[in-house]
Amino acid sequence: MRTNFQQWVASGSPWIWMTAGGVSLSLVMVFGLLFLIAANGLGYFWPGKVAAITVQGSADTQEVLLGEIADRETVSATRVRESGAKVPAGIDTVERFLIKVGNRDMGHPDFRWVAETEIKKIEYPPGVIVAERTEWGNFYGFLSELRDGGRPLPGASLAAKITQCMARSDALKAEIKQLERIDVGHINAGLERLRLRTRALGKIEASTARDEIAAKRESLEAEFAVLSDRLTRLRKDAQRDTLVLETSSGQFKDIPFDHLVRVFHPNAMSWAEKVVHYVQKVHEFTTDEPREANTEGGVFPAIFGTVLMVMVMSIMVTPFGVIAAIYLREYAAPGLLTSAIRIAVNNLAGVPSVVFGVFGFGFFVYFLGGSVDRLFFAAKLPAPTFGTPGLLWSAITLALLTVPVVIVSTEEGLARIPRAIREGSLALGATKAETLWRTIIPMATPAIMTGLILAIARAAGEVAPLMMVGVVKLAPSLPLDGEFPFFHLDRKFMHLGFHIYDVGFQSPNVEAARPIVYATAFLLVVIIVALNLTAVQIRNRLREKYHAADH
Fold it and tell me: Residues 6 or more apart from 293 whose CB is under 8 A from it?
């Protein structure tokens, strides 16, 4: 006789519960990780209060630290004593605070640990100002005065004047950026094209062509001189207004408004003002360029590079994967060659990604790129055009990395199509090619999209191969702009995955970089999910379309 327990085990219920428990645990871990990343990343943009912390130093001296409390932890008292802080006897553990004091250009570290036993008083003065700068990070202090061309501005309402000065500075910086990036960029591109035309002429006597080039060069140089004078005046005008702040130690700092990103009073902000500030910071993070060794500013070039690289990779991997799958499923006869191809595809899926990077660097960049330069860009040599890492080689390398996924998924989709459909199409007089093109491939489109979804999910997060074939820490220009031929496959680009690696492991300021790492990681997850959801939506529509056609 079986016991109740044996009957329960024989029914298979334990395995059902174990499977459900494993799936639930996996979901909890995934969503827990996403919550951790989101909490640490998105919380970085919220304006924290600035504390004035009175610290008891050695020899009965006191020091006032002005900054944000970034973190706190409990450590052993011995560790705190070794750092030079005083800890009363009989205490085993001490809580210490990580204070972001900023003002690093004043000779101070950006962050400082302070033990609880050293703190005499913590206050939150409403008049404290945070000046977010384009260089040297945040500056914490109190407003001393505003200067216009070196002369103090009169009046009591300095807060309104700060807003006016910031608006004027932002307008001037936008105009300067427009001139530098667009107008001067067009002139430089034109001069470069003329230089290459002159070099292509070589020693051939072509006086008419040379005279034409010389005239165009003279015209462009005249335009450049006019723009240079205008830029000089704008830069001088942008440096006219100056903000003077006083530190907690009584030092004064003059900050030109063209070095400021924003100025705000965190301790005096209402909840609505903090929400507006938060939205502005998030918008800056997603639309601006990075600064301060990528530890501040935005990540728009990395977002643009990641999405563009994935799109180019998808355009390349889909035809190759589908054609290979059609050959293996519909045309290839069973034999040694077909078996060898299938073994190669399976082995290709297990090759480490860094190996693809080495292959792409050696074959695509040096061999193919060097050959393209010698054939089509000889006038630019020895400066390489395609014989250097760039967007094109990155996309092809990742296409090679993900093509096994597309092949396998497409083959499975082709195998699920009933044989009767093929035979019916052939019986009606269609050729095999027409049957494939008009019947089989459309019905296998959902499976092709499934393979593409998996390829996008893997390619968007890859970093190791990209480090060799195109991705850089900071790209001077985007691969897509207004200069002919508008879409520059030869340019290097930024990538969110590499940005995370660079900021997290190569940054000299680890504490300042940590929130950026979390925020960028969360943004990368959001982009990958958005790309996948788009592909899933397309796949579902195709599935419904051909499912309805079957009925």
Answer: 507, 508, 509
Reference 360, options 323, 408, 309; nearest CA is 309
For the chain, the domains span: 300-550
Where are the extended beta strands (E) located within 268-348?
A: 290-291, 296-297
Angle at 520 between CA 538 and CA 131, to 5 degrees: 135
Closest CA to 403 of 305, 321, 507: 321
Dist CA 185 CA 483 (whole Å): 9
**Nearest C-alpha neighbor of 176 from the set 165, 185, 188:** 185
- Which residue in 526, 437, 482 sits closest to 42, CA to CA? 526
CA distance 347 to 133: 51
Q: How far apart are CA 340 and CA 336, in angstroms?
A: 6
Average model confidence (pLDDT) across the chain: 87
Q: What is the CATH number of domain 300-550?
A: 1.10.3720.10
- Chain segment 41-87, per-residue pLDDT in tens: 888 899 989 999 998 876 677 888 999 998 888 888 888 887 777 77
Q: Identify the three-state secondary structure at position 269.
A: coil
Rounded CA-CA distance 510/503 in Å is 8
Q: H or E element: which one contains 413?
A: helix 391-416
Quick: pLDDT tens for 133-188.
988 889 999 988 888 877 777 755 777 788 888 889 999 999 999 898 888 888 98
3-state SS record for 14-73: HHHHHHHHHHHHHHHHHHHHHHHHHHHHHHHHCCCCCEEEEEECHHHCEEEEEEEEEEEE
Contact 146, 256 (CB under 8 A): no
The verdict on pTM exceeding 0.85 is yes
Cα 240 to the center of its chain, rounded Å: 35
Place of tokens 């010389």: 214
Cα separation, 469 vs 391, whole angstroms: 8
CB 432 within 8 A of CB 426: yes
- In angstroms, what CA-CA distances link 31 with 26, 38, 131, 151, 469? 9, 10, 36, 56, 33
The answer on pLDDT for 388 being more than 70 is yes
Asked whether 263 and 167 are in contact (CB, 8 A), the reply is: no
Nearest to 269 by CA among 509, 506, 41, 49: 49
State residue 377 phi and psi, 5-degree precision: -130, 40
Helices (H) and strands (E) in the chain, counts: 18, 13
Sign of the four-CA dihedral 10, 14, 15, 17: positive
Whether the Cβ atoms of residue 66 and residue 128 lie closer than 8 Å to each other: yes
Other Cβ atoms within 10 Å of 155 Cβ, number? 9
Which pairing describes strands 119-123 and 62-76: parallel, antiparallel, or unpaired? unpaired
